[in-house]
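DATA SHEET
Item: assembly model
Revision: 1
Owner: S.N.
Input lines:
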Amino acid sequence: MTEDRRPKLAVWKFASCDGCQLSLLDCEDELLMVAGAVQIAQFTEATRTVLPGPYDISLVEGSITTPHDAERIREIRRSSKLLITIGACATAGGVQALRNTADVAEMARAVYPHPEYLDVLATSTPIADHVDVDLELRGCPIDKGQLLHVLTSLLAGRPPQIRDEPVCVSCKRAGVTCILVAEGRACLGPVTHGGCGALCPRYDRGCFGCYGPAGDANPEALARPLAAVAQPEQVARLYSTINPRAEAFERGRRLAVLGQEET
Amino acid sequence: MSAETASKGRAGGRELLDALVTTLIAKGYRVMGPRREGAALQLEPIDDVDQLPWAVVDAQGPGRYRLEQYEQPVAFAHGPLAFSMRRLVSPPEERLVTLRRKGAELAVEPAAVHARPTAVIGAKGCDLRALRAQDAVFRDGAHPDPRYVARREALFTVAVACHRPADTCFCVSRGGDVRPDPDDADLLLTELVSASPRYLLEASSDRGREVLEAMPGDAIGEDDRVRASGQDHAAREAMVRALPREAAQAALLAAEETEDFEAVAERCLACQSCTAVCPTCFCLTVEEEPSYDGQASTRVRRRDSCFSPDFSYMHGGAVRGSRAGRYRHWMRHKLATWSGQWGLDGCVGCGRCTTWCPAGIDFVAEATRHIQRQEET
């Protein structure tokens, strides 16, 4: 038998809902072409096959919430040439990062009859807090078009072009009227990393920041416009929906709460 | 009807607009005009004048846009539409070419140019002047862009004289006027406002004359012209905003330091909305999209913006790393350095950058700050 020279692709899961991995399965027709170009070395949602490392591309979903996972991600990093995080959990700690400011032991007591069986960390942290990450794909879930672009670019031997630009850019490209300006409804688009193609605004809904902050996010500048159209609790909730512990979103939430205290 | 009669124009009530739409459609144009789309007026296809925004106006201010009822049953009382005609000639995204592997060869498949004959009814003077800026970049240089040129040639414009400028408008101070320059359009429409509006239509190109000749209507009378001129005058008077060209250019040329823009940068979201709605902005980027089977790559041209950190990225980093530096670049280019580059004005005074800024940054007020500082020193 001749040696399989196709790149090895592995998909890893940490604390997450599996939605981002499912985005890959969601690719359907395109997936067959991608699957033909790589060896699937590890992808529990798709196959029982497990091939040994090293891996050319590791896609990592989920955040680090247990001591065991903190060790496991280091092993994955050691055996991966490229490590790409997929989704809000892996990139910013996810919605479960709400626990970072709560009493985890007390929550465990409230939920589990035998909390002593749990071995969890007090925080939910992004993969990049533990190991070097080569590329981050944002979103809850990720955009399958972006994922395919990354995989096909890497297979073609060229760098993927994932633009760090806010959702406003996608709205303007699509010809969507600004919800914040023309309707006075709250929208996090101006501070949120694009890539979704302005999915929510195209369906007449304000952005709730599932891609996390854009690299150049300026929540301080958005505080007043948001305060003019929404209650402080609503703004705080928007910022803490999917990426509560992303630094710029934490600033946005604090500003909303501070604004409330001032009035 | 003789060319001489046509050159005198046409006058009539709402039925003149009906005839205009019908004639343009009969001549094979897709007709577009202002139309209510959700919460804003957009440039949309129309096939019936009923689709125009009758008795609807926009209230525009920094970071604010609202549609309101208007007391007169007219169709062109609104200010600049949410998006300009730039989208029609320079789409935000377009495929240029696909390169496909065919054995040892590389097949080159240029993307087809879709230049559908399109007539825009109600083109504002500001947006028509902005097309001159787009023309300078994409058509009139040493390397015309065939895609742009084809779409531009397919564009037929019916300009409209503004009788109710938006609060954000300042075209007169930029060398424009409420009455568009006829040379910028094929036909020029005047809406005489009253409970029963009257329309005047004049041709300023051969294509325009052809359309006019195919249309019925009265001749434009002397009293029509007196009314039109009175309405123009009142509209000019109503435009209280101003950003004088020479003063702004001198002040911005002097504002060389990034620090001069740090205060505004604190309020700037760098969301690129201003550059996306600006009718003279033209920056593009070209990206490659490899096919899923690895056998082809498609080159796509997308709108870009100097507010993006990636925009000035070169080997080793971005040239304009700070928001203040990017704001400085944008404002100075629009108001000061553009004219040296293209012999035109980079700002036509449509005010969209101010209306559609989610943070409500007032471009005129910011530039005026620089003018005042210049005068003090």
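QC remark: Chain A has two domains: 8-155, 167-262.
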